[in-house]
Amino acid sequence: MTLATSPTLRVQVSAFLDKLEQHPVFRNEYFDFLESSRWTGESYDFHRANFFYRTEGTVKGIAAVCARAAANDDTDTLTLFSCILNEEAGNGEAARCHELLMENAHNLHGSAEFGLAPLRVKESRDHDLVIPETRAYRERTRELVGGSYNQMLGVAMALEGHADHMLRVCRTAFRNTHRELPDRRFVDEVEIYFNVHVGDAGVEERHAADARRCVQNNVRSEADLAEIAIGATETLNIQLEMWKAMHERVLAMGAPVGAR
Asked: Which of 49, 100, 160, 161 could form a disulfide with 127 if both were Cys (CB 3.0 to 4.6 A apart)?
């Protein structure tokens, strides 16, 4: 694998990666709400629709990275992201596909705790609870993935770096509203979606490290780093706008803040 050879450039890359980890998206108010409060049926229904639509693009984005890595003869990125794609797709088992686990977990929790009807992930595309900021997030990340190769790598790195923290916070929110399901069933059928990514599995931490490695492999000039920075920073910025808007919406619903 070929890392940036200039000592100065290596320092710049390292400094950028460190700075990215301090982005305010990791400490946003919606995450604070999820960790400290309990959903109502209304706020959970809203969260589910937006989370489904936000996350429905994951496999599509990873597949795009694989395709463009192959087209760019970037064997290292192709190898690492094809492993990520395989894990997202359930390692060859349809029932273990992460999108299906997400759908089943959210719908079981919604039914057991709030009496909500199930929602298919694909149905979220046209759901009236999906806010403009969530649609803007999907559209902007799609544009960035279709930009320069290094912009795309920046997007992939940003999303993989964000995923571990996001899923830990969401798992806490589910635990805060776990009342009706037997504990064993909650772990096996609801928490499973989060536990295959975070905790002892360490999957998202590994994905984030792999994505950083792919970025480092492709920085050969300051111009390369600038393109990666555009992709990564804009991705986190537009994600932060979505979380901010979701926080404003749940407050407008009168969701109890700090009530667990």
From this structure: 49
